[in-house]
């Protein structure tokens, strides 16, 4: 019995800097990178760009991939552009209505039509963690745009920064989230501590008010490098004598050592040796019978030669 043919899976992206979702394009074997396709998603019919051709696909949890419906036509592209031109109008109307309803803690960020205009998603964020009742706002927007199905969708502060864009705190013209980040990693204060970054809020907080995404970029390199270097206040032996580690430079693979009567000197990893390890090695060299019971040597437990 012949094995079933391998499905032709493609990765589709719906925005310039967005997640890639996998679809089965077995009916369109001639698809190439950059082609625009029509697919059905949980938010209605959408146009997406083929960003990846999956050579060895892993089956999804439910065992079934959604199908690519067809390659987009010029009419499809024009239809999407028509609806996109109305998204700013929707956002302005929704902001005005939210102000009338005195929803002060609610910020209307953007609106998104499906490419055929059958669904309208209004994206919002809130200043507090408490749930906000937006039933009246949704009903008002549904009456105003009764030709489509209206949905209010809450997004987090990082997604807000991604949509709005702007210059990063580091001076780059575009924020990382708007330029290339497709997923937001979990960031912790430990990452800043590990890299020796100042914990001043302005130094580690991004424009979204959360810890900066870039704290994770070099974190693994710092962790790996620190594992191979002695910690602060440890005693080490250097070519200029024994001293105490004052600071560690992970990326340079070096440490700053305070030497008696010499001062501060920097040494690389290859130039130093932990003082404790050296002392233990010297003790073993001077007393080879220090093991329990004198095992492996030519004398007994009390140091006397073993009887033949």
From TrEMBL:
* Pfam family name, one: PSP1
User: Which domain of life does the UniProt lineage start with?
Assistant: Bacteria
Annotated region described as Disordered, given as residue ranges: 283-308
- A cellular-component GO term for this protein: cytoplasm
- All copies of domain PSP1 C-terminal, residue ranges: 66-155
NCBIfam families attached here? RicT_YaaT_fam
* Protein name (Swiss-Prot/TrEMBL): Uncharacterized homolog of PSP1
């Amino acid at each position: 019995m012949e094995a079933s043919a391998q499905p032709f899976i493609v990765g589709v992206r719906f925005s310039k800097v967005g997640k890639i979702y996998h679809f089965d394009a077995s009916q369109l074997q001639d698809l190439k990178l950059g082609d625009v396709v029509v697919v059905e998603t949980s938010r209605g019919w959408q146009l997406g760009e083929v960003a990846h051709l999956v050579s060895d696909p892993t089956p999804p949890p439910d065992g079934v991939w959604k199908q690519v419906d067809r390659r987009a036509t010029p009419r499809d592209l024009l239809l999407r552009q028509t609806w996109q031109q109305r998204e700013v109008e929707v956002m302005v109307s929704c902001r005005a209505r939210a102000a009338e309803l005195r929803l002060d803690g609610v910020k209307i960020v953007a609106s998104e039509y499906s490419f055929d205009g059958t669904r309208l998603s209004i994206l919002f964020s809130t200043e507090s963690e408490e749930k906000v009742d937006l039933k009246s706002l949704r009903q008002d927007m549904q009456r105003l745009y009764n030709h489509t199905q209206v949905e209010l969708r809450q997004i987090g502060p990082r997604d807000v920064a991604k949509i709005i864009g702007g210059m990063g705190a580091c001076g780059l013209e575009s924020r990382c989230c708007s330029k290339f980040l497709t997923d937001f990693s979990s960031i912790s204060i430990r990452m800043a501590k590990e890299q020796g970054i100042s914990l001043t809020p302005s130094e580690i907080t991004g424009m979204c008010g959360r810890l900066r995404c870039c704290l994770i970029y070099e974190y693994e390199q710092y962790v790996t490098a620190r594992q191979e270097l002695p910690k602060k206040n440890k005693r080490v032996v250097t070519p200029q004598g024994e001293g105490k580690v004052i600071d560690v430079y992970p990326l340079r693979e070096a440490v700053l050592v305070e030497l008696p009567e010499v001062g501060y000197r920097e040494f690389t990893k290859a130039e130093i040796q932990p003082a404790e390890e050296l002392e233990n090695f010297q003790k073993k060299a001077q007393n080879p019978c220090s093991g329990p019971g004198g095992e492996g040597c030519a004398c007994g437990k009390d140091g006397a030669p073993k009887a033949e």
